Aldo/keto reductase (Albidiferax ferrireducens), 354 residues
Amino acid sequence: MKTIQLGSSDLSVTPICLGTMTFGEQVDEATAFAILDRSLERGVNFLDTAEMYAVPPRAATFNATEIILGNWLARRPGARQKLVLATKVAGPARSMPWIRGGSADLTGADILAACDGSLKRLQTDVIDLYQIHWPVRSVPAFGGIYYQPARADEGTSMHAQLEALHTLVQAGKVRAVGLSNETPYGVHEFVRLADQYGLPRVATVQNAYCLLNRSVENALDETMHHLKVSLLAYSPLAFGLLTGKYDDCGLTGPDAPAQARITRYESTRKQRWGRPEALMAARRYSALARAHGLSPTQLALAFCYTKWQVASTIIGVTSVAQLDEDLDAWGTTLSPELLKQIDALRWELRDPAQ
């Protein structure tokens, strides 16, 4: 695979990124090591994690994913130099008291301390891409679709957060910075402040993007294009809905795949991916894929792999076999006719997992 420059940074990554949020919950350390080994063997040079992981988030698995990655890096001499390593500082914890006491803010001091914690767990001297996992501001994210001015939270300013990130870059602890679950306004304001005050310029934004959630195309893509910010697309398979494995059985019940994320974790079914409308739409896309001689997974991943908006697609897996399937979808082309049919479905169904 060719590599792609992230924003205006000096980071060059493969167009497929291995997401690791299952490590430490669905995936034990031995299996995680096998997945990481295979990913490196197949040429993927980009790994993404977060201090909050594993997912679903809970106190018992907080930081577990970074610890597993650090252990793997420590036992694979030379691997670190081949990789671009990304992690994230959690935004306001609110309902997660195990993160900074459930603070409703993310201060500059929080960012500095969180980075030091990630460096220690990852057993590395530098984080290549350090991202703010979600905004301090109250924004429509994680299933919300409306901005509510009355709920605009007062918290640490973007400027102050950028100053903390600048401290980390100056100290050599971070090479480039990014955002996640951000809005067009948020991306634009972070870039404006960085340019105005000589602070680190945002290289990336990591947002959900898939056939069931194309909200990136509702203005964020224009912002990213003009400001030269790269999209890292997460959940390209919509938490498994777009693999087709739920088409006949639904999300629960005796025939549902017992170890699948949505089946296994009730909290996941309460999110955007668990909406009845999302499953209904996934079934329609699965039928479209099969009508064109593709598997549902091939269609969903090829859609992300080939979109101009996407710099790198973050895939999350629980086995080496899943990893190989997702990587094998690279190079799949979608005909103009099929792309028109995808757009027609979106016009009818919109973004049920937004």
User: Anything to note?
Assistant: The chain has 13 helices and ten strands. Residues 4-240+304-332 form a domain with the TIM Barrel fold (CATH 3.20.20.100). The mean pLDDT is 95.
